[in-house]
């Protein structure tokens, strides 16, 4: 059974009674001063502050998620642009390589034709020099043969006949 129903509890010499009376008076003073209202208001203010912080955190989170989505989209766009730039660069490099190969082939063909012309000119010049040398050698040989015939025969019968014909025609 609780001590509250015990007659000794209500005796004025009981210290527990005075503690209870002091506690009731203390709470009455607190109530009269409005401490409970102030505590309630402080708790309400703290709850409102916490709610404001939670709202701010939710707003910041929404902004962060929106920014993350935006950055993710920008990253994807940047990656797509980089991929397109890489493909364009590869295509341009392939085109430049093909152009360089074509120019190289054209240059080789042109140089080959030039070399063939130089060779043909050198052959023609060498052939002309050989012919000139052969003609010169033939002329020298003919001179020697004619000189030896003239030296042996004193006069050339063909030359004498040709001179005779000329005198008949000129008169």
TrEMBL record:
Pfam families associated with the record: ATP-synt_B (PF00430)
Location(s), subcellular: Cell membrane; Endomembrane system
Keyword Calcium: no
Chief place of localization: membrane
Keywords of this entry: ATP synthesis, Cell membrane, CF(0), Coiled coil, Hydrogen ion transport, Ion transport, Membrane, Transmembrane, Transmembrane helix, Transport
Subunit structure: F-type ATPases have 2 components, F(1) - the catalytic core - and F(0) - the membrane proton channel. F(1) has five subunits: alpha(3), beta(3), gamma(1), delta(1), epsilon(1). F(0) has three main subunits: a(1), b(2) and c(10-14). The alpha and beta chains form an alternating ring which encloses part of the gamma chain. F(1) is attached to F(0) by a central stalk formed by the gamma and epsilon chains, while a peripheral stalk is formed by the delta and b chains.
Family: Belongs to the ATPase B chain family.
Protein's name according to its UniProt entry: ATP synthase subunit b
Species assigned in the record: Peiella sedimenti
């Amino acid at each position: 059974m609780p001590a509250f129903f015990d007659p000794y509890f209500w005796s004025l010499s009981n210290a527990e009674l005075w503690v209870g009376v002091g506690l009731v008076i203390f709470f009455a003073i607190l109530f009269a001063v409005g401490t409970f209202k102030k505590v309630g208001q402080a708790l309400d203010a703290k709850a409102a502050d916490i709610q404001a912080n939670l709202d701010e955190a939710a707003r910041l989170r929404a902004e962060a998620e929106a920014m993350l989505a935006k950055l993710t989209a920008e990253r994807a766009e940047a990656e797509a642009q980089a991929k397109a730039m890489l493909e364009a660069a590869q295509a341009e490099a392939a085109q430049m390589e093909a152009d360089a190969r074509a120019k190289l082939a054209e240059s080789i063909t042109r140089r080959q034709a030039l070399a063939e012309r130089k060779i043909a000119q050198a052959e023609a010049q060498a052939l002309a020099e050989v012919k000139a040398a052969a003609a010169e050698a033939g002329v020298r040989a003919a001179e020697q043969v004619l000189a030896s015939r003239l030296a042996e025969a004193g006069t050339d019968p063909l030359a004498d006949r040709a001179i005779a014909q000329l005198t008949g025609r000129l008169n």
